[in-house]
Design goal:
The protein is about 60% helix and about 0% strand. It is mainly alpha-helical and about 200 residues long.
Length: about 200
């Protein structure tokens, strides 16, 4: 049904043209190539009944959309920046972490997690009392952050965020993915040879 391709594209390592080349040639064929994770989740949630990841009422759908936007604007950027400094850079590039960049992004993430904690004090999941796309889009980066940065206290110290994290990362589908890809390195896209 779906093929999972698991890679990390370091934004500082890939040129715009490389991404364009990756997509070219896939538009007019029977294979749907979608590279953005939120678009992938939305496509699956829209086209496969029974998932109910987008909410059932207009209010639920609006809440899901709102928290997906929050994830994209207030959560992902600081998490990715911290991961690049504390995990990907040292592991793959032998780069020494930039303390100022790390601290700046920890401050941003703390503010976001405080907002999450307040929301999760009111409901089991971000968009309400149902698991949704809003929760799902957080799982990969949140899991990598907690397991790879030694900054898990940012999550664990917030009661409701910690309970939510434990809940969303203990789902059978996520456990299966973690087990399947345990120990595998991320694949970095090669630099373009045209430069």
């Amino acid at each position: 049904m779906f093929q999972l391709w698991y890679w990390f594209v370091a934004r500082s390592l890939i040129r715009e043209g490389d991404f364009d080349k990756m997509i070219q040639g896939n538009i007019n064929c029977d294979v749907l190539f979608v590279a953005e994770s939120r678009a992938i989740v939305r496509y699956i949630a829209t086209n496969y009944e029974g998932l109910n990841l987008l909410g059932s009422t207009p209010k639920e759908k609006a809440m899901v959309d709102q928290w997906v936007e929050v994830e994209g604007h207030s959560f992902e950027t600081p998490v990715v920046n911290i991961l690049v400094e504390l995990f990907f850079g040292p592991k793959f590039l032998q780069k020494v972490p930039d303390v100022a960049v790390t601290e700046e992004n920890i401050t941003k993430l703390e503010k976001a997690l405080d907002i999450y904690d307040a929301q999760l004090a009111k409901s089991k999941y971000l968009a309400g009392d149902f698991y949704s796309m809003a929760d799902l889009v957080h799982v990969p980066m949140l899991h990598r952050f907690v397991t790879s940065t030694r900054k898990e206290s940012l999550v664990i110290s917030r009661k409701h965020v910690h309970a939510w994290y434990e809940n969303i990362t203990s789902r059978p589908a996520w456990k299966k993915i973690v087990e399947r890809y345990k120990g595998e390195n991320f694949i970095l896209l090669p630099e373009s040879s045209s430069s």
